[in-house]
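ESCALATION

Customer reports they have been waiting on this structure for their group meeting. Please prioritize. Original submission:
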Amino acid sequence: MSKLLVFCLLVLCISASLYAVEGASPRRCLKHNQEWNDCGTHCPLKCGQTELGPCTLQCEIGCQCVPGTVLRKDNECVDPKDC
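Update from on-call: job pushed to the front of the queue and completed.
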């Protein structure tokens, strides 16, 4: 009986933690000029860069700058002329 109870509690805890992680992903971005990306670049274009240099091919999940904008030092996505 106690093994069954422990097993059920373990399954419940794992399910709850998986739901919490999934639910925590907003899939929307609150900052201006950003959009959600399930597999974006690990090396975003930053102020002062005109083209990307060498970068890994790993996916970066989360909010990234929309096309035509670059990442400023304060982590805001801006038009390149506003750097």
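Sent to customer with the following note: The chain has one domain: 2-82.
Escalation resolved.
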